Amino acid sequence: MNKSQRFRKWMVFLLFTFMSWWSCTGSKAFTADSDLNEEETVLEESYNVVEGFKGNTVEAEAIAATISGGGLLGLPNRVNGNMGTVGGGISNQAGELGTVSGGFSNTAIGIRASVGGGGQNTADRDSTTIGGGYGNTANGSYATIGGGTFNTAAEVNATVSGGSGNVA
Asked: Which of 27, 67, 72, 159 is 20 to 30 A off residue 11, Cα-Cα?
């Protein structure tokens, strides 16, 4: 078998492998009917994924929410909104489109809010972000805290890069 034939066989193998994978894991969130315009797109299927501690919960009305693991007795992880995600840790909470990657007692309940980790951090406004640390609060829309301890980003578009006890 020459080099060209081996290449073709390899490409066919990759193509069929990809097609098999896609048929198993393809998009299940929604399927748009080509006869509908964007305003009439129908949400046909959505799945919530809850792993880890059996007490981890997703709000009943939430769709496409994910809890990947973590949680303990009395300290479960929770998702309270559509497409919220908790990666792990204990006693973390995510809201609509919010993400808590891990840590403990972190809260990302603002729409599109994000907490990377650490402990007792709260991102509770639209598009707020906390990278990590302890006891930080981002409650101004689009505010960011990189890390540190007991920092507050309370104004719109405020940024605290880190440190301790800073307010922006």
From this structure: 27
- Are both 8 and 56 inside the same structural domain? no
Q: What is the pLDDT of residues 68-105, one digit of tens each?
A: 999 999 999 999 999 999 999 999 999 999 999 999 99
Report the sign of the C-alpha dihedral through residues 131, 135, 139, 140, in that order: negative
Give yes or no for a contact between 123 and 131, defined as CB atoms under 8 angstroms apart: no
State the Cα–Cα distance between residues 112 and 140, nearest whole angstrom: 13
Query: 3-class DSSP state for residue 31?
Result: coil
Token digits for 10? 């390899």
Burial annotation 128-144 (CB, 10 A radius, 16+ → b, else e)? bbbbbbbbbbbbbbbbb
Residues 8 and 60 in one domain: no
pLDDT digits (tens, 9 = 90+) for 24-45: 444 344 434 445 445 544 455 6
